[in-house]
Amino acid sequence: MLVDGAQLWTLNQRLLAVVLDACARELAELGLETKEFFVLAEVEASPYPAEIATALLLPKASVTVYVRNLVAKGFVRREIDEADLRRHRLVLTDEGRGARDRALAALAAEYDRRLARVTPQDRVELRRILNVMLGRTESDRTGE
C-alpha cells in the first residue's frame, strides 16, 4: 500500500502536537509558551531575529514579540554585534540556557516515551529516513 506525502505529513504533525501538548504544563512552569521555547532553543544557532524567523518559518514580527518576551523574562539579552555595530545579536542568559535545557529534556523524555514503542532497528531506520528527507549526506550524519 502506497502512503502519500499528505498522510505522512499529517501523522508527523499529530505526533509533534501530542508531544508538545504533553509538555505544555512543564513549559508553562518554566515561564515559556510553546513558540517562545522554539525561539529560545534557536538563539545559539541563529543569534539574529531575522535568522530565527527564517529557521523557524515564522513571521519576523512574531519573532520580535517572542524575543521581547524572552528578554523581559531574563532568558535572552541583546548585545551590539562587534562585527556590525548597527546590529544586535541575541545571547542566552544562564537562566535562559537552563530553561531551554529543562524544556528540551521534557520534550525528549516525552518523545522517548513514544519511541519506546518502536524497535531499536526501526529507530535507526527512522533516523536514516529523516536524514535522507532533510537532504543530509552520510558525512553530515557521522558527527551525530
UniProtKB/TrEMBL annotation:
Residue ranges occupied by any HTH marR-type domain in the UniProt entry: 1-135
GO MF terms, alphabetically ordered: DNA-binding transcription factor activity
Family annotation (InterPro entries): HTH_MarR-typ (IPR000835), MarR/SlyA-like (IPR039422), WH-like_DNA-bd_sf (IPR036388), WH_DNA-bd_sf (IPR036390)
GO aspect biological process, one term: response to stress
Protein name according to UniProt: Regulatory protein MarR
A Pfam family per the record: MarR_2
